[in-house]
């Protein structure tokens, strides 16, 4: 008995992954045998599984110092612990927002929930990766699940087209990542990220620089940085909005972890080289994301280019090349995920049966039809634009501070200028909701009180974190240092 307890305690830090893998199997079986008879059972079970997973993670996975498992391929540290709890919360809220949307379109099926949980498992593997092998396993588990989610609505040709584009471009990025990793493995003789960091020293051979370039390309593609952003607007627009919400939130946590584990930790010896590459990508991403967003007429495409612009700020945190920079990038990522969750939640709740609220004109006069949704969207747009006292202001300011401290003055000026450009299209959404008359006279079907309350709470947290920013800032600083 004591031996079994000892074995359990050694695997306890990986409880989130173990529970999630078990939950996926159970929910899949429930859907096969009872899904047709009771349509809402799978979604309820999934929310329950996420709640239990978060509780188990909070009880058993909390570690005061990093713990290595599975022959050193998996690391359980405080950063992974916090990001996993964030993953559970974001996906659960996303499911809550999506339920009515799925029902209205007749696609409330178990596959959506199983694929989303499998993607979340990939996120968790990536967050705790300590080897090139687990990095690639996490990336592919997440990517393959998301490809299938984009094509989830089988009756829609647009979804299938978007999924095919995503799959083909994603396969190229995966190939680039694998090739870059193979070069680094061949030159260092190890898959362990800590050992790779200790064995890479200047001057670097052409093979190291080439491997590094391929890895940076793959990371940039996954984040959606220019010029590897081509998939993002098409996928955001073509996928069902509930899938767009998922893609635009939880995977961003994973791709921050990918950049941190692979570049900042595994390739720490080559920081001077990859920060130069990322600086170029960040500039292109900020300019293209903000400028192209100005001419969008579809809210999902506008939010896609907004995502690209915000990815530029996250990349700038890595350009600083210091622990403070990585902490600022983490803070920005968490803030962006919170705001994007609410923004896509509003789009979902504005939609109704037979009506896809995806054009900007559909938001005209929203404050008369649904004052709560308009107020929430206004808070979220102000935050994304970086207007005080909302949390988005502090996220941008922290990025500016770390760039200033590392003597990247020209990047501070460029990023500030692009923030001003970006403010135009965020304020445009507010203007449409509050100052334009709507041709649509009927309000969207009312959603359950719990869902609307959650959305209001989402906006309240954005405001609260803006008024009291120090707690989250301090937490991010502690997780990285």
What count of helical segments does DSSP give? Answer: 21
- For the record, give the distance between the C-alpha atoms at the N and C termini, rounded to a whole number: 39 Å
Summarize the amount of helix as a percent range. over 70%
Instruction: Tell how many strands the DSSP assignment holds.
Output: 2
Number of domains: 1
Radius of gyration: 22 Å
Features:
single chain; 481 residues; mainly alpha; two-stranded antiparallel ribbon; 21 helices; 76% helix; globular
SSE order and pairing:
Blueprint: H1 2-11, H2 15-34, H3 41-60, E1 67-69, E2 74-76, H4 78-104, H5 110-127, H6 132-150, H7 157-188, H8 193-199, H9 206-223, H10 231-238, H11 241-247, H12 250-266, H13 271-293, H14 299-319, H15 323-350, H16 366-369, H17 371-385, H18 391-405, H19 409-435, H20 449-467, H21 470-480
Antiparallel strand pairs: 1-2
Helix pairs in contact: 2-3, 2-5, 3-4, 4-5, 4-11, 4-15, 5-6, 5-12, 6-7, 6-12, 7-9, 7-10, 8-12, 9-12, 9-13, 10-11, 10-14, 11-15, 12-15, 13-14, 13-19, 14-15, 14-18, 14-19, 15-17, 15-18, 15-20, 15-21, 17-19, 17-20, 18-19, 18-20
